Amino acid sequence: MATYAVGDVQGCAAELEALLGRLAFSASRDRLWFVGDLVNRGPRSLDVLRLVRDLGDAAVVVLGNHDLHLLAVARGHAELRGTDETLQQVLEAPDRDRLLDWLQARPVLHHDAALGITMIHAGLPPQWDIGLARRCAAELEQALGSDRSGKLFARMYGNQPDLWRDDLDGIDRLRFITNALTRLRACDAEGRMLLKLKGPIEQLPAGAVPWFRAPRRRSAGARIVCGHWSALGYCDEAGVLSIDTGCVWGGTLAAQRLDAPATPVFVPSTMPAADFSSA
Known about the structure:
By secondary structure, the protein is an alpha/beta fold. Helices cover 29% and strands 15% of the residues. It has a single domain (3-268), classed as Metallo-dependent phosphatases (Purple Acid Phosphatase, chain A, domain 2). The chain has helices spanning 13-23, 45-54, 65-74, 88-91, 96-104, 130-144, 149-155, 170-183, and strands spanning 3-6, 31-34, 59-61, 110-112, 117-119, 186-188, 208-210, 223-226, 235-237, 240-242, 252-257, 265-268. The strands form three sheets. The protein has a five-stranded mixed β-sheet with strand order 3-2-1-11-12, with helices on one face.
């Protein structure tokens, strides 16, 4: 049995199908870990959701910011944006309710004790070790699965608070957890999340560092798999493997075997080439 991490698919079903062929993937034997953002901007978000859901236990998915946005729109707590037209196919699908219920039940963090690997979509603030990250993720997952989910979807948007405190509570605490796990790329020297920053590492302003280079990062030494930062590309540094390689922007869709040493596999995108240096 092989376990592969797969980068942000974002509706690129043709590339995902090609990747499964390249891996000679078998749902009866292998496992796929998806780092989030199954949907949006690519042409076939509906097909991606159906394909991954139908893999059953062979697929582990964590939620990304685009997945949460789809759920917020579908549940009536957000509006479609100009770049969201590809979500309409999901919202109008005859099986939309089953797909959305399945998506909303996905975790925001997956930890495999046997492999010693934790998967998230974006990042961890430097104040969190893996134990605290798992507890915070469980809080968010409980909110997503409860009758509080509407309040969460209605108020999860925004960049504050941007600095972790143990005594954060209510929607501020849930918003911080959501932003950390699904949006974080960079921090300042104090460990404050700089959620507006995008682009390559070399273009970060003075005083900003990638979250995995933050001073005194308490998750240092842990093995972490993530995506979200397409302008970063494939990056394996300090135990953190980031594998969003910009498929939806005309880059590639990446897969990396996790349970054995292996070279990464990249499938070229069929999408038109676009500048994703700020994505």
